[in-house]
Write a sequence for this structure.
């Protein structure tokens, strides 16, 4: 392993830990500071933090890998996600920022739901906190698996331990650094590190496809198109082999955005409602550049591999293979840091949201109602540690189907919380009983759909992504139950004075 790679990586780790200590000094005095950064994020930090906590290792491994293996038809997932994120910024972000403050200065999503529907406060807080903690343990594990795989494939020859595999060392190392800055600095540390990590990821996704295409052995656009046409005449087709069900299952990934607690919590922390539109423009520009970069990397990476006789065993490692092959060790180290950044930014956000729910919606609700702010911050830190350790044990199997787990957790959140968030922010007639019904029906539909195997084959045809039935069922449940139960006047109109 070249010394240059280690220099870049150590600089990256030092920067992350430095930000953690800065945030610790600046904003961990109260629960609001620790869990929402005192609602004082600038638009740029909020935007990139929402983006980076969303785009995990999937952006640099999963998406390019899928395009490398199958062709341009896989880009529909990215398009669906982009549209979903844009609608989320327009519909949910400004309303959530304003209403979480209006309804009792809520610090977590379960707390907001309880304040919005006081008649069913206890049920909402408990059910939503359980869903958050269960799904996030799985979600966080998938990030740790990506960290383990990176370490095993990039640094495998470094450590010859008979006790621990390269994979398990990678998991615990990734977790150790994330835990350090998350436990110490809370939400501000997570958001500032996300900002830096988002910039690193975008740079990597601009540099890599450009070098693959125009560097030595690349041959430019025309050459790449010819090479890909010789591999498969339909490789660059947007529609070849695409069924209607397959198209729906790809683009409906975007529905998941409305219900991802680790993303929408960023909206609650923007400095003011007025600045949400600025944050949206920054966030969507970042996302467009990053997604186009990831798509180009998968497509042109395949052309490069064919032209130069590269044998890429696992298509999802194309980013790691090219980083090692094409760049100076210092730059390779930077690109590895970008991959770690993608993984870590998501893990840290998920750990913090899980710990916030455990602290605010279990500890302060059931165990110690009168807990002080400093006590809550301490409990929050312990909960971050606990969730991280549970996730590491779930991630213990190197052959675990990670991307499958990600899609399951994404669908679970999207179906349970998506319709609930949209309707609670926009429909004044919605009732607390309707909210509980939506949460339970959404989560149960997703779990049942996966258990019956209908996500892999449905009625003799291709599988239907579980978010589609879950989202529809939850939406219907909320509307029907809300209209069937008396309105309790829980909606608080904006005071015009």
């Amino acid at each position: 392993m070249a010394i240059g790679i280690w220099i870049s990586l150590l600089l990256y780790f030092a920067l992350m830990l430095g930000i953690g200590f800065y945030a610790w000094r600046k904003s961990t005095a109260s629960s609001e500071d620790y869990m929402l950064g005192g609602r004082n994020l600038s638009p740029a930090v909020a935007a990139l933090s929402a983006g980076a906590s969303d785009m995990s290792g999937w952006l640099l491994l999963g998406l390019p890998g899928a395009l490398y293996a199958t062709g341009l038809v896989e880009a529909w997932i990215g398009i669906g996600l982009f549209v979903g994120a844009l609608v989320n910024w327009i519909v949910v972000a400004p309303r959530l920022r304003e209403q979480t403050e209006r309804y009792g200065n809520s610090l977590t999503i379960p707390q907001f739901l309880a304040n919005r529907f006081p008649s069913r406060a206890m049920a909402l807080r408990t059910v939503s906190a359980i869903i958050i903690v269960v799904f996030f343990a799985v979600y966080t594990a998938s990030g740790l698996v990506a960290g383990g795989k990176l370490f095993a494939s990039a640094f495998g020859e470094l450590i010859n331990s008979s006790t621990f595999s390269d994979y398990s060392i990678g998991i615990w190392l990734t977790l150790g650094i994330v835990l350090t800055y998350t436990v110490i600095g809370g939400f501000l540390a997570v958001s500032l590190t996300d900002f830096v990590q988002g910039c690193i990821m975008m740079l990597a996704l601009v540099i890599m496809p450009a070098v693959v295409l125009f560097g030595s052995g690349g041959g430019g656009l025309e050459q790449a198109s010819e090479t890909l046409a010789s591999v498969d005449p339909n490789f660059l087709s947007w529609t070849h082999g695409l069924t209607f069900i397959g198209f729906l299952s790809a683009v409906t990934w975007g529905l998941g955005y409305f219900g991802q607690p680790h993303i929408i919590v960023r909206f609650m922390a923007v400095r003011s409602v007025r600045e949400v539109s600025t944050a949206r423009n920054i966030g969507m520009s970042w996302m467009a550049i990053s997604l186009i970069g990831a798509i180009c990397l998968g497509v042109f990476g395949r052309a490069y591999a064919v032209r130069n006789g590269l044998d890429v065993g696992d298509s999802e490692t194309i980013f790691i293979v090219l980083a090692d092959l094409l760049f100076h060790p210092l730059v390779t180290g930077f690109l590895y840091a970008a991959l770690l950044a993608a993984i870590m930014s998501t893990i840290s956000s998920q750990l913090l949201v899980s710990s916030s729910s455990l602290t605010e919606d279990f500890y302060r609700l059931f165990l110690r109602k009168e807990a002080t702010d400093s006590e809550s911050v301490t409990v929050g830190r312990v909960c971050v540690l606990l969730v991280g350790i549970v996730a590491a044990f779930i991630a213990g199997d190197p052959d675990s189907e990670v991307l499958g787990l990600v899609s399951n957790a994404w669908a679970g959140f999207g179906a349970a919380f998506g319709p609930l968030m949209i309707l609670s922010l926009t429909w004044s007639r919605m009732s607390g009983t309707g909210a509980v019904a939506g949460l339970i029906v959404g989560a149960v539909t997703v779990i049942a759909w996966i258990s019956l195997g209908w996500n892999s084959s449905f009625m003799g045809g291709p599988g239907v992504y579980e978010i589609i039935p879950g989202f529809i069922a939850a939406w219907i449940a909320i509307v029907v139950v809300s209209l069937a139960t008396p309105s309790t006047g829980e909606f608080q109109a904006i005071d015009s004075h």
User: Anything to note?
Assistant: The chain has a mean pLDDT of 83. The CA atoms of residues 430 and 482 lie 5 Å apart.
